[in-house]
Write a structure and sequence with these properties.
The complex is a heterodimer of chains A (about 110) and B (about 110).
Chain A lengths: L3 E4 L2 E4 L5 E7 L5 E8 L3 E8 L6 E2 L7 E3 L5 E6 L8 E8 L8 E2 L3 E5 L1
Parallel strand pairs in A: 2-11
Antiparallel strand pairs in A: 1-3, 3-8, 4-5, 4-9, 5-6, 7-8, 9-10, 9-11
Chain B lengths: L2 E4 L3 E5 L4 E3 L1 E4 L4 E8 L5 E7 L5 E3 L5 E5 L4 E6 L8 E9 L5 E3 L3 E6 L1
Parallel strand pairs in B: 2-12
Antiparallel strand pairs in B: 1-4, 3-9, 5-6, 5-10, 7-8, 8-9, 10-11, 10-12
Classes of the chains: A mainly beta (about 110), B mainly beta (about 110).
Chain lengths: ~110, ~110
């Protein structure tokens, strides 16, 4: 059981470049989330989805876009990367039991130079 | 709006000593409470959770946390830590019936020999 899988694990971008981070889960979870983790700031929610075809803004959505075309996949896009987006990105999923216990991927370390 | 405050950013402790990691939250509605652990270069994984019932919850590796509604706290304790407990610990809260989980900034536990 793979759980939540993120690709890629590492990436270096130049300022202004674009990229897409892929998150896939095999637990048939309805809810999926993208967080960024920065030192001293914990995890901050970027965008989330409560089901296939839905997306919503989280705490820090500027500069990012997301899509949930298939229930098992949640894509995070950076259209024009900036150094401030250097971070570790985590995808998570949870079911609809109501507790929102989250299952996390291993993270993507992104550096924007 | 919910918020989570972890009162200590770093906690150094000697092996076999007791430890307490503090967490306070604010919410206007009923909540579920979680502690997640993150080992170096890994994603977060659930350590323990409070959903309802007994206010003292325990993990399989000796950690416990107590939900105190009057003090809006959910402190994590372990009577005797091991080197292998060195990790970052995140307190988190989700509102019953909500879609999102809010994380604290994290507490880095460093166990010294």
């Amino acid at each position: 059981n793979a759980g939540v899988t993120q690709t890629p694990k590492f990436r270096v971008l130049k300022t202004g470049q674009s990229m897409t981070l892929l998150c896939a889960q095999d637990m048939n979870h309805e809810y999926m989330y993208w967080y960024r983790q920065d030192p001293g700031m914990g995890l901050r929610l970027i965008h989330y989805s409560v089901g296939e075809g839905t997306t919503a803004k989280g705490e820090v959505p500027d500069g990012y876009n997301v899509s949930r075309l298939k229930k098992q996949n949640f894509l995070l896009g950076l259209e024009s990367a900036a150094p401030s987006q250097t971070s570790v990105y985590f995808c998570a999923s949870s079911d609809t039991s109501g507790t929102l216990e989250a299952f996390f991927g291993q993270g993507t370390r992104l550096t924007v130079v | 709006a919910q918020s989570v405050t972890q009162l200590d950013s770093q906690v150094p402790v000697f092996e076999e000593a007791p430890v307490e990691l503090r967490c306070n939250y604010s919410s206007s509605v009923s909540v579920y409470l979680f502690w997640y652990v993150q080992y170096p270069n890994q994603g977060l994984q659930l350590l323990l959770k409070y959903l309802s019932g007994s206010t003292l919850v325990k993990s399989i590796n000796g950690f416990e946390a107590e939900f105190n509604k009057s003090q809006t706290s959910f402190h994590l304790r372990k009577p005797s830590v091991h080197i292998s407990d060195t990790a970052e610990y995140f307190c988190a809260v989700s509102e019953t019936g909500g879609f999102k989980t809010i994380f604290g900034a994290g507490t880095r536990l460093f166990v010294k020999a």
